[in-house]
Amino acid sequence: MIKKFKTIEESQVVISELMLPSHSNFNGKIHGGYILSLLDQIAFACASKHSQTYCVTASVDTVDFLSPIEIGELVTMKASVNYVGNSSMVIGIRVEAETIQTGEKKHCNSSHITMVAKDSKGKSVQVPGLILKTDDDIRRFAKSLRRKVMKKNRKQEFHDTDFISEEYLHIQELDNVKIER
Asked: Where does the record place the HotDog ACOT-type domain (predicted)?
């Protein structure tokens, strides 16, 4: 039986993986694409644990790479449900890398991925609500709500049917761009 509401702790997922040379790019750092793959996997696990059903990635809302990850470091990802809608969930993920020899840890990435719960026929299904217990829980939920509104506004503001490019010609004075028509 699926619960009507769940605590954040009930759905949290933590994974750790040692970074190998095969995960690196040409500069000897761990490839961002490899980290993106791990982010998607843990988001799926967290969302599926919360919803108790199959989930799909709807959008990658933010991925902030803060610090490079080195070969030989132990990467730990911590995922939590930050927000729930009817069938959607925003999964917040914190990525830390640890130098095993010293125990030194660094915050390398923060991400927010929207997942949608689906049934066996691919139809969206209702997810359990979220029980918020702490100020951090409330802050993360509110921040997810704000990102949702901003995303909707961004889509509407720059819709191709009502976009007027003349209103944005000043951008060539502000940024590294030259407009030629």
From this structure: 9-121
Residues contacting 87, CB < 8 A, separation 6+: 116, 117, 118, 124, 125, 126, 127
Cα–Cα distance measured from residue 85 to residue 149, given in angstroms and rounded to the nearest whole number: 13
pTM of the model: 0.89
For residues 32 and 70, the answer to whether their CB atoms sit within 8 Å is: no
End-to-end CA distance of the chain: 61
What are the b/e assignments for 38-48, b being 16+ CB within 10 Å? bbbebbbbbbb
The DSSP-derived string for 53-81 is SEEEEEEEEEEEE-S--BTTPEEEEEEEE
List, for residues 3-27, the tens digit of each pLDDT value. Answer: 799 999 999 999 999 999 999 999 9
